[in-house]
Amino acid sequence: MKPWMGVALFSIKIYDAGSLKDRRQVVRSLLERLKHFNASTADLGPDGSWSVADMAVSCIGSSHKEMESRLDQLFSLMERSEAEGEFEILNARREVFSYGDFF
Question: Model confidence over 76-101: pLDDT tens digits?
């Protein structure tokens, strides 16, 4: 059996962020919403930036198709959130890959 992993990376520009607290509020909200898809999330920085944030989201499952579907849902959530006007997606990447045989 091969486990499949899906990884998404997002770089966003946060509008009207006047402090690190403003940045953290937007990023934490997004990461919490992304966790509802059984995903692990991380704020990757950059440290000290008020208006730019890099985030990673990862998930694991039993098939390539399942991971593609989950990443589609994650991207859809990010696009809907972007439409609310707090931030702009500057860059988004995704990858699905298998991680060898365990059995």
Answer: 999 999 999 899 999 999 999 998 75
Q: Which of 100, 98, 101 is nearest to 6 (CA)?
A: 98
Phi and psi (nearest 5°) for 68? -60, -40
Nearest-angstrom CA–CA distance, 29 and 48: 19
- Give the pTM: 0.90
The candidate with the shortest Cα–Cα distance to 14, out of 55, 56, 42, is 55
> Please, what are the domains in the chain?
4-98 (3.30.70.1120)
CB atoms within 10 A of CB 70: 21
The per-residue DSSP string of 39-100 comes to -EEEEEE-TT-SSEEEEEEEEEES-HHHHHHHHHHHHHHHHHHHHTTSEEEEEEEEEEEE--
Which residues of the chain register pLDDT less than 50?
none
Taking a C-beta distance cutoff of 8 angstroms, is the pair 63, 4 a contact?
yes
